[in-house]
Amino acid sequence: MVKKEWIEKGYVDEPIDKSIDLKAEIRRMCKEKDAIILAHYYTIGDIQDIADFIGDSLALARKAAETDAKVMVMCGVHFMAETCKLLSEDKIVLCPDLTAGCSLADSCKAEDLKKYKEEHPGYKVISYVNTTAAVKALTDCVVTSGNAKKVIDSFPEDEKLIFGPDYNLGNYINSVTGRNMLLWNGGCHVHEKFSVEEIIKLKKEHPDAIVMAHLECKAPILAIADIKGSTATMLKYAQANGKHEYIIATEAGILHELERTCPEATFYPVPPEVSEGGLGCSCNECEYMKKNSLEKIYNTLKYGWPEVVVDSKIAKDAVKPIEKMLSLS
């Protein structure tokens, strides 16, 4: 039975015996319930440690489409759980906290996109994966930061395209493809906080460090970055290049996997431009990703809630652009 207070909070808030080994019990329940845990690189290290699979948005989408497990626990943000459900409609998809949203997805409402499409007849819509199922249902093809250029290149050069909601990613793709896509003016609140000045400060302190920046960062950040791409791109580069110092301009959760797989390298997270209270903060974190916790995962497995369900009418159209992306990737 789903309690009223759970619905109000968006997650199961039941007391847990403090003597329980949460990591061990979560793994036991996964085996018992034929469940897997999918975690984004931006979740806390403890979650990444107990996950069956960690990755960026593209990798997680692929895993969701391939898994034979009956239950998926998506530790990330809500749109990621929706994507899992769209790709595996016969599976149970659990989201530890329904309030784990996304500022980027929130920047593009389905009704606003529908109106924009009507104002631009003849245009196809390319949507970043960081969107709701309702927006995906209005989309011709989905992209991630890892495959955006490849997907855009698959369209005829004279194709009229609308790209959204991430303006920075769209602007970068325009610059490297020579396209003139119409760009939605949306952005990620984490990546918008990085500044050139903060990176320059770190570069002065660590002159040999390689600057790596996510494509959701603003153009001036990307202009001074040595490596620019998705979280997976950064991870693969560091793993392949051994002993180096790196300045990292993306959400700080990626440091856990970077440090785990590249123990001989040193990583410096870029702090946000303006930190709360004006005090210097050493990293830039997504508060939505950090809503995931071991306690919530334990409870969501134990009680089978919150379960993510997508309206069948929306799902029918929303899955098509995701499947097209996967076929092009």
Describe the structure.
By secondary structure, the protein is an alpha/beta fold. A four-stranded parallel β-sheet has the order 2-1-3-4, sandwiched between helices. The protein has 16 helices and twelve strands. About 2% of the residues have low confidence.
Helix content: 40-55%
Please summarize the sheet with the most strands. Answer: 4 strands, parallel
Number of helices: 16
Strands, total number: 12
Shape: globular
User: Which H/E pattern describes the elements?
Assistant: HHEHEHEHEHHEHEHEHEHEHEHEHEHH
Indicate the low-confidence ranges by residue numbers: 275-281
Rg on CA atoms, Å: 20 Å
State the strand order across the main sheet: 2-1-3-4
State mean pLDDT (0 to 100 scale): 92
| SSE-based structural type | alpha/beta
DSSP strand (E) fraction?
5-15%
End-to-end Cα distance, whole Å, is 41 Å
